[in-house]
Amino acid sequence: MAKIFIFGGSGRVATDLIKDLVADGNTVTAAARHPENIIKLDGVTPDKLDLHADVEDITKQVKGFDAIYFTAGSRGKDLIQTDAMGAIKTMMAAEKAGVKRYIMLSSMLSLDVDSWKKIPGLEDYLAAKFFADTYLMDSTNLEYTILQPTNLTEEAGTGKIKLDAGPSDSNPIPDVAKTLAEILKYPNTIDKVIPMSSGNTPIDQALKEI
Questions:
Q1: Contacts of 188 (CB under 8 A, 6+ apart)
Q2: Nearest to 175, CA basis, from 191, 208, 145, 152
Q3: Helix, strand, or coil here: 131?
Q4: 135 with 91: CB under 8 angstroms?
Q5: FRET partner for 88 with CA separation of 20 to 30 A, picked from 28, 96, 97, 103?
Q6: Using one digit for the tens of pLDDT, what is the confidence trace for 136-145?
Q7: Mean pLDDT of 164-176
Q8: What share of residues in the chain are helix, strand, coil (percent, to 5)?
Q9: Measured in Å, how far apart are the chain's first and last C-alpha atoms?
Q10: Are 130 and 79 within 8 A, CB to CB?
């Protein structure tokens, strides 16, 4: 059983992620600007946190946890201070607090700048994710995993994925959440960037083969 801290704890992916982590026996503290919107379950503690906060304040909140998930996003409304710098401040806080494991929910093609033209309209979002992901890989000593799903869809999960992604692919939100939860069980995912979309391989098998 692990103590997990989730940034963006009221979001669509985080809600399913929380369910999966608790079902696996973990305890979860889920943080959001509006903690009243966080799912209410045994084993889940809601916490109030704004990613505009100082690193020192965020550090106090994450101290004592075994792993951190970053699933927050501004949906295009605050890309610099939330999706980019907000994420980076949580990484700084994790290192200051001594939390080594850090799992990032990113986006397809976030690190492939030349491919951004394939998905017009998302360039600014992908730029924010690029800076956050690059900082995580190159400027921290965290044991990171970066998951890069394609388009999120609100449909039932299949429990099956492929570790590849193109602009036309999609992912049911429950499958993204389950993949995030399962990543915690596989040390072979540490220091890996993992693209994903719907596929034919069971999630646990796909992760084992990384």
A1: 207, 208, 210
A2: 152
A3: helix
A4: yes
A5: 28
A6: 999 999 999 9
A7: 83
A8: 40, 25, 35
A9: 23
A10: no
Q: Which two tokens stand for residue 35?
A: 């903690």
Mapped onto helix, strand or coil, the DSSP state of residue 194 is strand
Tally of CB atoms within 10 A around 111: 18
pLDDT at 133 over 70: yes
CA distances from 165 to 5, 81, 138, 148, 191 (A): 28, 27, 23, 8, 19
Distance in angstroms (rounded) separating the CA atoms of residues 183 and 193: 11
Residue type (1 letter), 169: D
Percent residues over pLDDT 70 in the chain: 99
Q: What is the rounded distance in angstroms from the CA atom of residue 148 to the CA atom of residue 154?
A: 17
DSSP 8-state secondary structure symbol assigned to residue 37: G
Query: Each residue of 3-25: pLDDT tens digit?
Result: 999 999 999 999 999 999 999 99
User: In the numeric block, which tokens belong to residue 58?
Assistant: 């965020």
Burial profile 32-43: b = 16 or more Cβ within 10 angstroms, e = fewer: beeeeebbeeee
- 52-82 pLDDT, tens digit per residue, is 999 999 999 999 999 999 999 877 788 999 9
CA distance 43 to 34: 19
* β pairing state of 101-105 and 170-172: unpaired
At 206, list the tokens.
Answer: 């796909």
